[in-house]
Amino acid sequence: MGMNVASSSGGGGRRSRRKPVMAEINVTPMVDVMLVLLIIFMVSAPLLTVGVPLDLPQTQAKSLEQNDQKPIQMSVDIKGKVFIADAEIAINELIPKLKAITDARGGLEERIYLRADKKADYGTVAKVMGLLSGAGFKKLALVTEADQG
């Protein structure tokens, strides 16, 4: 049997020149992750608004000051349906449900934002506002969009 004998000039068979260390960062995986996150946020951002789709009227009124606590969101859609957040509620159950919510949160001093479609029946919106006022809710605000022109 034969043996392979490698002749080297010392160093136990290692080369005297080493390969330089690569100091570059591969950004391709980071770009891929960022693009996926961008797509996720673009899809989910419209879903973060209140769930009832409304065409709000436009005004030139100034916006209200925001408190630390999130206000109760109510909506009246074009068909006259009343919602608390995104849950539809019958108009005769409105005040008992709101009182239960506000008792848990802060009483009748709780701020209520009423969003109504600009083509919604004026009578339904007035009826909801009258019920809220008659029940003792004092902090009621109508939500509109800023006038574009």
TrEMBL record:
<keyword id="KW-0997">Cell inner membrane</keyword>
<keyword id="KW-1133">Transmembrane helix</keyword>
<protein>
    <submittedName>
        <fullName>Protein TolR</fullName>
    </submittedName>
</protein>
<keyword id="KW-0813">Transport</keyword>
<dbReference type="GO" id="GO:0015031">
    <property type="term" value="P:protein transport"/>
</dbReference>
<dbReference type="InterPro" id="IPR003400">
    <property type="entry name" value="ExbD"/>
</dbReference>
<keyword id="KW-0132">Cell division</keyword>
<dbReference type="GO" id="GO:0022857">
    <property type="term" value="F:transmembrane transporter activity"/>
</dbReference>
<keyword id="KW-0653">Protein transport</keyword>
<dbReference type="InterPro" id="IPR014168">
    <property type="entry name" value="Tol-Pal_TolR"/>
</dbReference>
<keyword id="KW-0472">Membrane</keyword>
<keyword id="KW-0812">Transmembrane</keyword>
<dbReference type="GO" id="GO:0005886">
    <property type="term" value="C:plasma membrane"/>
</dbReference>
<comment type="similarity">
    <text>Belongs to the ExbD/TolR family.</text>
</comment>
<keyword id="KW-1003">Cell membrane</keyword>
<dbReference type="Pfam" id="PF02472">
    <property type="entry name" value="ExbD"/>
</dbReference>
<dbReference type="GO" id="GO:0051301">
    <property type="term" value="P:cell division"/>
</dbReference>
<feature type="transmembrane region" description="Helical">
    <location>
        <begin position="33"/>
        <end position="54"/>
    </location>
</feature>
<keyword id="KW-0131">Cell cycle</keyword>
